[in-house]
Amino acid sequence: MDKRNILSVKNLEKIYVNSDAPNTHALNNLNLDVKEGEIFGLLGPNGAGKTTFINILAGTVVKSSGQVNVWGFDLDKNPRQVKASIGIVPQEVNLDPFFSPKKLLELQAGLYGIKKKDRITDTILKLVSLEKQANSYARSLSGGMKRRLLMAKALVHQPPIIFLDEPTAGVDVKLRKNLWENVKSLNKQGVTIILTTHYLEEAEKMCGRIAILNKGKIVALDSTKNLVDKISTKKVRIKTDKKIDIKDNDLTSLKVISSLQNEIFLSYEKSKLNMEELINFIKKNHAKIIDLSTDDGDLEDVFLRLTKN
After folding, report:
1. What percent of the chain is predicted at pLDDT more than 90?
2. What is the pLDDT confidence band of residue 286, given thresholds at 50, 70 and 90?
3. Could you state, in order of their start, the residue ranges of all structural domains in the chain?
4. Which ranges of 59-172 would DSSP assign to H, the alpha helix?
5. What is the β-pairing status of strands 263-269 and 255-259?
6. 96-110 burial string, b = 16+ CB within 10 Å, else e?
7. Which of 35, 65, 68, 271 is the most buried (most CB within 10 A)?
């Protein structure tokens, strides 16, 4: 069964009018659909328009034109419902140091007008693994706990979509893993996740689909696998039993990246050369292959190719 669109954006524009400088086109004819239940990545260099996009949905920035529909609500007609359908986990940790996680979540629920009997504070604390710290001061929490508390705050009104804005910026590797476990478990419970990130390997592991934004425009939108498959260059590292002499273009599109005693690192275009031809060429040099490893490129290659001017 096809999942329905939980977020639909058509021809979205945001122009900042500057009196003494040229106008800034922060979002330029943005079109995007996100399906219910997916983990969707929004990538792009600084200034690409990611934050403007999130702020439009959050209601803190007014769009110039275009249509935005969230969970069936139109942003122009039902701004409050749109806001209520989204939870935003900001980049900056902004928590009152003298409140406990439990107090903070209760306060947040009050701000959303959620009646006491309908609050799920304890469930949320469990979900982000903070039940043991429920009554500690926020200032005594570790960096990772504070990040998870921000996630909890965004979940108070049980929104169907969560936006994670650079959730692991400046976070160590162990903590990053821990945050991702949390994100995955939220997603398993049916929450749709949209994340912006600078860490491309993170996006590659986490996201089913990815949109790459550059200068306010979407320059790529596809499944993560398809984006990575689009890279035309393959890199190969080959260890042989003796030194062989390979030069650039001995075979079509072949480039020698480095050549040591009996190890050679090469790249070639997948469409112009295949591995078999390369192996046969080495055998013709009367050398035996001891070890061979390949690299098909990753999201970083796609990203750089699409965002370099």
Report:
1. 49
2. confident
3. 232-307
4. 79-84, 101-111, 121-127, 143-155
5. antiparallel
6. eeebbbbbbbbebbe
7. 68
Distance CA 227, CA 245 (A): 34
Any idea which residue has 């003494």 for tokens?
20
DSSP 74: E
- What three-state secondary structure class fits 263? strand
Backbone angles phi, psi at 153, to 5 degrees: -60, -40
Phi, psi at 282, each rounded to 5°: -70, -40
56 vs 286, higher pLDDT: 56
Q: Are 127 and 101 in contact (CB under 8 A)?
A: no
CA 70/CA 89 separation, integer angstroms: 17
Superfamily of domain 232-307: Alpha-L RNA-binding motif (3.30.70.1560)
Distance CA 197, CA 50 (A): 10
**Do 144 and 170 contact (CB within 8 A), yes or no?**
no
Q: How far apart are CA 126 and CA 239, in angstroms?
A: 51
Radius of gyration of the chain (CA): 24
Residue 2 banded pLDDT, cuts 50, 70, 90:
low
Mean pLDDT within 171-185: 83
pTM of the model: 0.79
What is the amino acid identity at position 260? Answer: L
Residue 4 to residue 100: CA distance in whole angstroms: 38
Q: 254, 279 in Cβ contact below 8 A?
A: no
User: In whole angstroms, what is the distance from residue 84 CA to residue 63 CA?
Assistant: 18
Long-range contacts made by residues 46-50, C-beta under 8 angstroms, separation at least 24? 47/215, 48/213, 48/214, 48/215, 48/216, 48/307, 49/14, 49/213, 49/215, 49/216, 50/165, 50/196, 50/213
The HSE-up count of residue 57 (CA atoms within 13 Å, CB side) is 26
Per the structure block, which two tokens stand in for 91? 């980049």
